[in-house]
Amino acid sequence: MQFTSEQRLDDGVLEREFTLGEIPGILWTPGSASAQAPLILVGHPGGLSKMRSRLAGRARHYAARYGFAAATIELPGSGERPRLAAVEQARTDLRRAMVAGQPVGDEIVDALVLPLVEKAVPEWQTTLDTLLALPEIGGPVGYEGGVISIGIRLAAVEPRIAAANLFAGSFVPAAMYEEARQVTIPLQVLLQWDDEGNDRQAALDLFDAFGSKEKTLHANVGGHAGVPQFEIDAGARFFARHLS
Amino acid sequence: MQFTSEQRLDDGVLEREFTLGEIPGILWTPGSASAQAPLILVGHPGGLSKMRSRLAGRARHYAARYGFAAATIELPGSGERPRLAAVEQARTDLRRAMVAGQPVGDEIVDALVLPLVEKAVPEWQTTLDTLLALPEIGGPVGYEGGVISIGIRLAAVEPRIAAANLFAGSFVPAAMYEEARQVTIPLQVLLQWDDEGNDRQAALDLFDAFGSKEKTLHANVGGHAGVPQFEIDAGARFFARHLS
Asked: Which of A137, A166, B92, B211 is the residue whose CA sits 20 to 30 A from A203?
């Protein structure tokens, strides 16, 4: 890992850009860390520069108010990273189906999401190895955000992840419902009730499928980008219960 | 209103039992009130002595940690209060239908709940008049708990109620879905995902029906009595956003 920039923000949080091999990322750590900080991995749908201010808002709240470290990396095939041919093809097929008003078939959803999960999860795990080796970061680790299928796989296979705050999203492959049953860590699931691009019943079915004994659904009025501000703190408090 | 007992609890909260005409109730006020405290009306399914420790747990958290006053009254036809013949009959019909494994018809649900709503809502309003006249209590006012149909009617007709934290429950008359559309105040709705006695889809439909622009559903794993401890504080924080 190479740090490529470093900035002390006005809330005392240290924001560092890094590259891990070819993967760009950002790390936020609290200004006054007495002990090793728990770590939140902050997921997103891809396009780090576009998502940056929203991600930084959450990460800085976590770091400044709760003493958590938070980190994000670019998704495979997004931002400045080389495109994934199969995913690009699926995206074209998806767009064509939606423009034509046709139902989006399982094969399109699988082609769109599964290669991303396959590639992104090991990258998150490598990131985790590297970040946990830094002296200022300790366990335990939480994951939050979308792509929800990546969160499901990580929660199912990565034992260092102790809790996850997942954002419901559209286009979840059928196979991920099976994987959701394997997830047993505490979960919070955020659902935008009026998300035009998201099948509400499918999201409720997915919440139902998770094997976790502690799982909470937070459903809020509004569209995909309308997550209320207070959910940032609700997420932090969820992690505070499980990571502190 | 007559206070019939008064006790200073170890968290500094003042707990007073009262009667308002024939209606028994309990009022909790914060130990160190600098200004007039906002008020939370704490609803319940009836049977104050049976419910008391659970209600006091929430009320004392609100008073001690957030500086809210909280009050509850006995439901019509419950506890020491005279039975309501029509409601008792509906209860018998309900039990008979459930034992026989028959569906519970709309007419049973209406007979069980509507007279209770008709009688309880004006009682809550009289209680509100009386409590708001106390020097230590000011507005604004929140309502929380069940019976959800009582909460819906109160939220729809009582302009002094500024926010409501409603507990989803079974047996909601069809007419209440229409009233729910009239509700426009900020809402939080608590749903136990595996509540045996509660139709999950009906609860989701009711959440969908509310007219409020800010509404949040908190669904948690577990049965009717399994509401997680952390939801007490989530309720308090919801009220803190809207009543402070």
From this structure: B211
